[in-house]
Amino acid sequence: MARLDLAYDGTDFYGYARQPGLRTVQGEIEAALAVVFHMPIETDVAGRTDAGVHARQQVVSFTAPRPVTERRVVGRLNRIVPPDLVVLSASDTEPDFHARFSAKSRTYRYRILNTPLPDPVLRRTQWHLPNELDLDSMNETVAPLLGQHDFSSLCRRSEDRSRERTVLSAKWERSGDLVEFSVTAVAFCHQMVRSMVALSVDVGIGKKSSDDVPAILAARDRNVASGAAPPEGLTLWSVEY
To answer: Is residue 150 annotated as part of the catalytic site, yes or no?
Structure first.
């Protein structure tokens, strides 16, 4: 089994997962792997990212037809893939390694540019919000989300799968004009982080109260929450094994 670590700017991708006729991260990396190994290669991934979402460390695994030599494979792949996708490392790993099922946790970060006017240089990686944000209230919002819960109110419904997840840490911090949310969980369901951000922002601007969060979570109804924040502010930051 082989492992690749990737980073990408998700702005111009229709998400990670392969989709017919659309430009995706999986489509690009598998096409490049096919050139390097002279055969079709299918990958498994630590976590599928949505359209417009970025990755600082994304992990994929695949069955390689021959041993992976890191320097050679990384160099060849990076000459093939487009500039908004970079292969950080390549290695052989344990036979039972699986990018998704072997992962112990994932960490995402969401960045908000909290200034009166937007910054065109940062528009691809941060959500611009001119509103005054109450970070104490935003941290009070995410505190009840720690631990194991059914996150149906904060996840997009898909194929009747369980939306029970375990959140290990969640915190909002400010550094100058940058307001950043960092959250680590064993796994996430679809749009969970962006929904946590949207709910936090609604509380931070006074539209909702942090006291409402336990009831929103208990309702298991997406209609009572705040939808999802824009994708550009979200980055898959790291995957722990």
So the answer is: no
